[in-house]
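[stage:ingest] chain + small molecule (glycinamide ribonucleotide)
[stage:ingest] validated
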Amino acid sequence: MIKYKNKINIAVLVSGNGTNLQAIINAQEKKILSHGEVKIVISNKENVYAIDRARNHNIKVQTVIKKADTSQDEFEKSIKKILTENHIHLIVLAGFTNILSQRFTSEYSNKIINVHPSLIPSFCGKGFYGIKVHEAAINYGVKVTGATVHFVNEIPDGGKIIMQKAVYINKGDTPETLQKRVMEKAEWIILPKAIEKICIEMLSKNEGV
Ligand code: GAR
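[stage:predict] done
[stage:export] tokens:
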């Protein structure tokens, strides 16, 4: 394998519990993720556990709150300022609840990735978020679900797929039991792997220097 001198600087955008952020941090510590480094965590919510997780590992955190009178443009400008100041090459959405505008996603084309708790193109797009995705999968009666890591473009959950992993739905599963299994068996595994893959690809194209 080619040895690269640099690493890809990563920003992780969060809104909640931050278990996917934790999976990224763990992968970094175990060197499963070695071609990128989380430089900053940006939260759009105050007092969420994701912030504690970052601080527990000495990772810088900034909060950018979108108040009722904050426009999407102002909100994104604040995020962009933090990304620029921290020389960020790759943005990872890990349970981030805000839908970024086309202006933002096209500016960072192929540089934003997201984890979604279903096998896209099922149970995805606007309104499909968190536990709602698992409720929809159970209500539909599918037998297999999973998680997807994909690039982010102007279509919610519509960008190119990077990695997917399937998870069986068991008889008697509730949205909560299913969410837990999809996280443990799929999201926390494929998200760090997909990040590493993208970091290597970016370094091979001389990005991140
Ligand atoms: C995760 O299941 C993630 O896939 C989902 O929100 C949860 C966040 O959990 N994201 C979406 O549904 C995006 N459409 P976390 O804060 O513990 O990582």
